[in-house]
Amino acid sequence: MTQNLAGTARPTAAVATPAGAGRGWWRDAVIYQVYPRSFADANGDGMGDLPGVRSRLPYLRDLGVDAVWLSPFYASPQADAGYDVADYRAVDPMFGTLLDADALIRDAHELGLRIIVDLVPNHSSDQHEWFQRALREGPGSPLRERYHFRPGKGEQGELPPNDWESIFGGPAWTRTTDPDGTPGDWYLHLFAPEQPDFNWDSPAVADEFRSILRFWLDMGVDGFRIDVAHGLVKAPGLPDLGTGDQLKLLGSDVMPFFDQDGVHQIYRAWRRILDEYPGQRIAVAEAWTPTVERTAHYVRPDELHQAFNFQYLGTYWDAAELRTVIDSSLAAMRPVGAPATWVLSNHDVTRHVTRFANPPGQGTQMRSPGDRELGLRRARAATLLMLALPGSAYVYQGEELGLPEVTDLPDEVRQDPSFFRASGQDGFRDGCRVPIPWSGTAAPYGFGPHEGGPSWLPQPAEWAGLSVAAQSGDPASTLELYRSALRIRRELSALGAGDELEWLPAPAGVLAFRRGSLVCLVNTTGEPVAHPTEGRLLLGSGPVEPGLLAPDSTSWWAV
Ligand code: NOJ
Q1: Mean pLDDT value across the chain
Q2: Looking at the annotation, which residues are catalytic?
Q3: Which mutation among 69, 78, 348 tests ligand 1's pocket best, with the greatest number of atoms within 8 A of CB?
Q4: How many Cα atoms are found within 13 Å in the side-chain-facing hemisphere of 317?
Q5: Treating both helix axes as pointing N-terminal to C-terminal, what angle do 203-219 and 98-110 enclose, rounded to 10 degrees?
Q6: In the predicted model, is pLDDT for residue 5 greater than 70?
Q7: Closest approach atom of ligand 1 to CA 191
Q8: d(CA 459, CA 524)
C-alpha cells in the first residue's frame, strides 16, 4: 500500500532551511496546527486536502507563524479522523498523494515555514497489514507479538483479560474470531476498537517506527508531533487497575497503561535519529501526565524537544490560577532546559472562545455556547497573554478568526468515535473541527472552490462575518489582532526567548509582568481596574485607556 513518488528518487531534504536555525528555532516558535480535513478543500469534495493546505501557505506566512503542524493525512479508514493509520508511508487519497506532501513541504520551506507531521505510534488502524495478517493467521502468528493479544478470562474466555477501560468508552479489549470461526483471543485498544495498540516490547515495532521517522525526515519534514506519547509502554503483566471510572483518574494518577518509565528509552533512540539530520528536526510530545514535573521527563536533553502544556490548556480565565500554572510550567522545564509551551485550543477540546464563555469547572468539552461576546473578549486577552510568555506557543486553526465551538451540530453529522461509545470521553470533538471560513457569503465560505459546494461538517451561517476576507484589514478584528501580535513578537525577539518572567505587583484578578522591554497587563475580572500603565502602548486586546485596565483585557506596553 505504500505509495511511491513518481520518478526514480525520493526527494531529499535539499530544500531551503528557514531562518533561525542557529538558535534553536523551536524554543520560541509559534506553531500553527492545521487539521487537514477542515482547513482548505482544493478539489471540492467537501474534505480538506494537502493541495488546499499548500494553496493557503502564503496566508500562514503572512499571519506570522514559524511552523505548521499537520494532523494525520496518512492512509486511514478514518475511524478516528486519521488517528487510525493503515499505512504510515502513504497519503490517504482523500488528502492527495505523496507528491502533494512533497510539494507542500518544499513550498513551505521556500516561504520560511517549517512542517511538523503527526506520528501515531501507540496504535495502528485495524486495517493495517500487520493487524490484518495477525487476525488471518490466527493464534501462533508471529504478527500477534506486535499487538497485545491475550486469552480472555472466565471459563470460555468470555471476559476481557483485564479491567482496563477505553478512553473512548467501554472496555479496552475486543474479542477476535479465529480463522475457524470460533471465538478467539482478545486484543487491546486504549482508544476505538479500530485502533489496536502496538506492543512496544516487540523489536519489529521499534524498528518499524525508526524507519518511519527516517522516511518522513528524508521527505524533509522538520519534526513530529507524537500522538499519545505517554501510552506506548504498558506495565508488565498488564495488571488490573481494580477500579472503574478510569477516565477520571487520568489527570491525577500514573496508570498501568500511561506514563510508564519505559517510554523514555524509545524517545532517546528517536532523538539520536533526529540529531543525525541537519536543520534541527524536532519532536513534540502529546503526553498526558499527572503533573508538569512528569511532563518534563519527556523533554530531558536527550529526549524530545517540547511537550504540550495541557495543564495550561485546562486552566480557566482566572489570574491566580494562571499565575500558578505559568510559574509551575516554567519551573518544571528549567531543570531539563526545555522551553515551556503554551496552548489554548486543539482538535480535541472545545474552542477556548466557548470554554471562556461558560462558567468554570466544566472541563474542556462542553455543548453550551455560553456568553459568546464574553468568551471572545477573554479569548483575545488570553492570546496576548500566551504570546507574551517565554517559550513556544501553539495556535489551532481558526482561533485567529475568533471562531467559537459549533455546539449545535446535529447528531447525524457527527463523526467523533467517542460520541458513539457510551460513557467514554464526552465525544463532542466535532464541534471544533468544522471547516474554517475563508471568504464569501455562502457556505462553504471559500473552504471549497465552489459556492454552495459541500463541507464534511456544516458551517454556521454567522461564519460569513468571521471569514479571513471579512476580517482582513479591519483593525478591530481578531485576525488583525493575531497578525499584529505575531509581528510584534517577531520584532521583539526577546519576547518568546528564555524562561524568565518578572512578576510586577498587581491587585487581585490582575496579572502584570515584564519580559525585557515589554510589560504585559492582564485583567481577568469583569470590571475595569485602575492600574498604572507606563511606556508606549504596543497592542491591546480591547479598548485601552492609560491607567485603566478594561474588563477581560490584555495590553502590551513598551517600557
Ligand atoms: C490524541 C489525538 O489528538 C486524538 O484526536 C486521538 O483521538 C487520540 N490521540 C488517539 O489517537
Answers
A1: 93
A2: 227, 276
A3: 348
A4: 30
A5: 50
A6: no
A7: 10
A8: 31
